[in-house]
Amino acid sequence: MTPPIERTNLDEARLAAKMAAKAGYQSLAKIIEDMADELSLLRQQTEWRDIADAPRDGTRVLIYIPALDLQAASTFEHGAWQNVPWTSNIHDLSPTRWQHLPSPPVQEEDK
Known about the structure:
Distance between the termini: 29 Å
C-alpha cells in the first residue's frame, strides 16, 4: 500500500508549481497546481471526521462504530443513525467517525 502523502508534500508541490511558473514553464506549473488541488480534494473526501460534524440532512455517509470495529453506510434520520446493528449487550454502538461515500462506478455505457 502506498503511504499517504503528507500535507507538507502538497505544500512542496505548490512551491514547485510557483518555481516552474517563474522559470517560464506555465503549463507545467498549471499541471502541478491542478494535481495538488485534486489531491487535496480527494484527501478531504476520504478522511475520517468527527461524527459531530456529519451531515444530518439524510445524506448517506460511511460511519465507524468502534465497539464493533464496523464501517457501515448510514443516514441520520428521525434523530438517529439508521441501519446501525442492534445488540442487547452493553456496548455503546454510537458511531464516532464518518466520511463521504465514494462515487459509484461508471458503467461502460455511461462513458
